[in-house]
């Protein structure tokens, strides 16, 4: 039995009694037959009104408030609560002197002061929440303290990063987290976890392996003491696609999305959402070489051209060696001739040092 059904039944009974009693009381001067007839009629109208309208001023507003509170981040809730308390304290200090004013000011202004200072307190603290939280952290002496017993400090917990399914499956996020370059809270919504579980239960062997790898990465992330991993039931109503939900959620929480999905990257940037792309990070930290530098490269295979050989640097950067096919299986000293940056990454062209 659903809550809506119970509320409708209770509303129907309540408004039936109210309607029947109202007409019985006001129509008591009429003939007894008319009183009974109209009492039953008005009671029936009240029953229909209660059956239809009761959820709209009971369960519907409660669900709306619940969805609204779920979308608000913990930082916003804390800042709003602090602002409300501060505004009400200021209004309380002004209530007595304002109440001494002549009517109607003495009775109206205290109420207006409570409303205005409560609103301005919430607005001020929410808009300046980062500054307020930093002030509190400094007063508590925790702003520069490292994590203790595996729990993040205030500064670490103040930043939230949304994780995409692709970046969890990729696995490199766990290695990056261990280095300490991802301070804050890694937020994994329940719908991302559900998609990961769906992939892990796929009939396709490759997709199933990828999904299980993502589950292992999550378990590894939860063991990393440098970051706080939080799985939340927060959701976006009326949207089915996971990428769309992540973008809307990132805009609501004003936080970045960590991903390596090219399409999500572009769509999110168009909508003003900050993206942390692991592929871009990997390209940024690759070794920088200039034309004319000498490298020791193990040539392991042929290139696209028959005369080319291909080797790889320690960071995975491809090195194409001209006339290098005859040195396959050998480690040669080569000279860099050209560095090419492509969408897939950096490619280096070189030639053996003898030539």
How many domain units? 4
Order of helices and strands: HHHHHHHEHHEHHEHEHEHEEEEE
CATH class of the largest domain: Alpha Beta
- Major beta-sheet overview: 5 strands, parallel
Bin the strand percentage: 15-25%
Mean pLDDT: 82
Could you explain how this protein is built, in words?
This protein is an alpha/beta fold. It has four domains: 3-61, no CATH class; 73-130; 154-283, 3-Layer(aba) Sandwich (Rossmann fold), CATH 3.40.50.1010; 294-352, OB fold (Dihydrolipoamide Acetyltransferase, E2P), CATH 2.40.50.110. Helices cover 55% and strands 16% of the residues. The protein has 14 helices and ten strands. It has helices spanning 3-26, 32-53, 59-71, 74-99, 105-127, 129-140, 154-157, 165-170, 172-179, 190-200, 205-222, 242-253, 262-270, 278-284; strands at residues 160-163, 185-189, 228-232, 257-259, 275-277, 294-302, 309-312, 318-321, 331-342, 345-352. The strands form two sheets. It has a five-stranded parallel β-sheet. Helix 1 (3-26) runs antiparallel to helix 2 and helix 10 (190-200) packs across helix 11 (205-222). The chain is elongated and about 120 Å long. Residues 142-157 have low confidence and may be disordered.
């Amino acid at each position: 039995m659903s809550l809506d059904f119970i509320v409708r039944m209770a509303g129907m009974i309540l408004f039936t009694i109210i309607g029947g009693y109202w007409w019985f009381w006001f129509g008591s001067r009429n003939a007894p037959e008319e009183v009974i007839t109209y009492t039953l009629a008005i009671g029936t109208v009240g029953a229909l009104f209660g059956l239809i309208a009761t959820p709209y001023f009971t369960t519907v507003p409660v669900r709306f408030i619940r969805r609204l509170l779920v979308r608000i981040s913990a930082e916003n809730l804390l800042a709003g609560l602090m602002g409300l308390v501060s505004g009400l304290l200021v209004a309380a200090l002004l209530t007595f002197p304002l109440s001494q004013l002549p009517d109607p000011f003495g009775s109206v202004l205290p109420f207006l002061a409570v409303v205005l200072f409560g609103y301005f307190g919430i607005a001020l603290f929410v808009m300046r929440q980062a500054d307020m939280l930093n002030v509190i952290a400094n007063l508590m002496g925790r702003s520069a303290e490292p994590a203790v017993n595996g729990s993040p400090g205030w500064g670490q917990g103040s930043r939230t990063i949304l994780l995409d399914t692709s970046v969890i499956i990729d696995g490199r996020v766990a290695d990056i987290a261990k280095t300490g370059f991802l301070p804050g809270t890694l937020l994994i919504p329940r719908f991302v976890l559900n998609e990961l579980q769906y992939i892990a239960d796929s009939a396709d062997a490759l997709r199933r392996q990828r999904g299980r790898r993502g589950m292992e990465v999550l378990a590894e992330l939860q063991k990393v003491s440098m970051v706080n991993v939080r799985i939340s039931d927060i959701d976006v109503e009326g949207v089915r696609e996971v990428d769309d939900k992540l973008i809307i959620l990132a805009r609501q929480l004003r936080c970045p999305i960590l991903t390596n999905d090219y399409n999500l990257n572009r769509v999110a940037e168009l909508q003003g959402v900050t993206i942390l792309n692991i592929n871009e990070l990997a390209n940024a930290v690759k070794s920088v070489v200039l034309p004319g530098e000498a490298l020791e490269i193990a040539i392991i295979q042929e290139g696209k051209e028959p005369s080319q050989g291909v080797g790889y640097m320690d960071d995975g950067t491809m090195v194409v060696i001209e006339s290098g096919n005859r040195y396959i299986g050998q480690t040669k000293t080569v000279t860099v001739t050209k560095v090419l940056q492509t969408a897939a990454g950096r490619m280096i062209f070189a030639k053996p040092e003898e030539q």
